[in-house]
Amino acid sequence: MKKLMEQIGEELVKAFEKAGYDASYAKVTVSNRPDLCEFQCNGAMAAAKQYRKAPIQIAAAVVDALGKDGVIGEAEAVNPGFINLMVSPEALGDYLNQMQLDKDLSVEKTKEPKTIIVDYGGANAAKPLHVGHLRSAIIGESVKRMCRFMGHRVIGDVHLGDWGLQMGLIITELSLRKPELPYFDEEYTGEYPEEAPFTISELEEIYPAASARSKEDAEYKEKALTATYELQNGRRGYRALWNHIMNVSVADLKKNYTNLNVEFDLWKGESDVQDFIPKMADYMKEEGYAYYDQGALIVDIAKESDTKELPPCIILKSDGAALYTTTDLATIMDRMEQYQPDEMIYLADKRQELHFTQVFRCARKTKLVNEDTGLTFIGFGTMNGKDGKPFKTRDGGVMRLEQLISDINEEMFRKIVENRSVKDKEAEGTAKIVGLSALKYGDLSNQASKDYVFDIDRFTSFEGNTGPYILYTIVRIKSILARYAQEGGVLEKGVMLPPAGESEKALMLAVAGFNSMMENAFEEKAPHKICAYIYELANQFNHFYHETKILSEEDPKRKASYLALLELVRQVLETSIDVLGFEAPERM
């Protein structure tokens, strides 16, 4: 379905050509003066130089050449040469009727679906999720859903950190605490226990204790490095322990990600590509891309056009050890073999931009990817406390994500109970739904690359640009529609009339902009644009609601039109929040 602005543009193209001017000047934009008009065209200003005429003369001729029965209802040439445009109320009503009958709500899905891998999450095995993992999970989930909504095949990969020194540290600490376990006996040939010798709580205590000790005890750290090496080279007992660590960790991670309404198609990690590293290094050497420098295997990635120095990409350290760069390149190699993706999108802290620049350049130079394979890095800023510093617990530690979600839910529960808007037995479930909207919307409404302040009081407010405000608007619409159904009313489609007043027209125009917004948000991979749109739509609806008697409207056709509009607004809002990764309750 064509966008409303496209239809206006087509009419303007015809008018420019009919008036004797080049159609390239017929560019339409949303008005920057909504008090004067809804759309505008400034092409006459640009055309004045070529045609050696006053802009107002060109604008007036174009307005005179416009057809009378199209999407444009009113047009006016205004000094010094602007063309102000208003949409025809009749055309607007027809447009929304078509939109409501369209299963995709007017959004044109891609005709050439791509295979896209979204790499987000980035959790480490054996460590609890903390607030630092929040943005990757939330933004990545929304980007994945956005791509799917536009018709692409999308694969979400958590890309676990599961193969580094942390594993050696845990094994070393366990060997001191529980030396009697069979995993440490190199002579043991029997079956290892099916049950892990630790719980997730114990595991989460073991790692930081081991990490702290390794910083003070050189001999201990050397043991951990040896354990890491032996694990990675196949020591049987250590591999069995590693499987326990992974099973316990992944089960806990899945629970926490589920609480965030975040799902991954792949639970792969660095360990999955270890077999690719030797053959990748050999390939890079044989093809002349990589060479040894002071014992390390490197690939030069600098270009003459670079404005600042870009260091070479290290594939293997002088001791033969792999780095994050190595693992990321091997992962690209694996993904190209298994999935042949058209694009790979990575979500990570924006401070990792240099790392991804190196990885992407190296992948292209060494032809690990095709020439037209997209490699995109979305770098996000930090979530800060009110003091402007990275968000911490009250005692200064890094807050666990589980605790943050719990705090949000408790605050929402308190507000819901205070409002007495939901029965006590429903309040807890509703608080979780609304709390998730507060958390996700509070993050996603900010441009990803920017830092933002996490303010629990503001984010959980039912007023202003917040998730609860958006959900409250949806629940209000659902309530009206439910009362209409209780009265025996049946919703109809295709019955929207031209708007009867300014607030109704403003709401209808906002709804009509859904397809344009979704296309733009997808192109820029920008969830904050969806947030901005639904906030504006919610505002327009609430303005319309407060000045319109909907259920008491006496004209049955007008009443049916109002209710059809409400149903369309509900669909657009709920579709949008689903792409953002949360949902609305039935009551609040």
Description:
The structure is a single chain. The chain folds into four domains: 4-87, Gyrase A, domain 2; 115-161 and 269-380, Rossmann fold; 165-259, no CATH class; 434-580, Isoleucyl-tRNA Synthetase, Domain 1 (Orthogonal Bundle). Helices cover 52% and strands 10% of the residues. It has 20 helices and 13 strands. The chain has helices at residues 4-18, 43-51, 55-65, 89-101, 134-149, 165-177, 200-216, 218-232, 236-259, 276-286, 324-339, 353-365, 401-419, 424-444, 456-459, 467-486, 502-512, 514-524, 527-546, 556-580; strands spanning 29-30, 39-41, 72-78, 82-87, 115-119, 153-157, 290-293, 296-299, 313-316, 343-349, 374-380, 383-384, 452-453. Strand 3 and strand 4 form a beta hairpin. The longest helix is centred in the C-terminal third of the chain and has 25 residues, at 556-580.
Characteristic key phrases:
single chain; 588 residues; Rossmann fold; 4 domains; 20 helices; globular
Whole-number tally of structural domains: 4
Task: Quote the CATH topology of the largest domain.
Answer: Rossmann fold
Instruction: Compute the CA-based radius of gyration.
Output: 29 Å
Uncertain segments of ≥5 residues (pLDDT<50)? Answer: none
Number of helices: 20
The CATH architecture of the largest domain can be given as 3-Layer(aba) Sandwich
| Biggest β-sheet strands, sense, barrel | 4 strands, antiparallel
Provide the residue-averaged pLDDT.
95
CATH superfamily of the largest domain: HUPs
Structural class: alpha/beta
Terminal residue distance: 35 Å
How many strands?
13
Q: Largest beta sheet: what is the strand line-up?
A: 1-2-4-3
Describe the global form.
globular
Task: Give the CATH class of the largest domain.
Answer: Alpha Beta
* Range of strand content: 5-15%
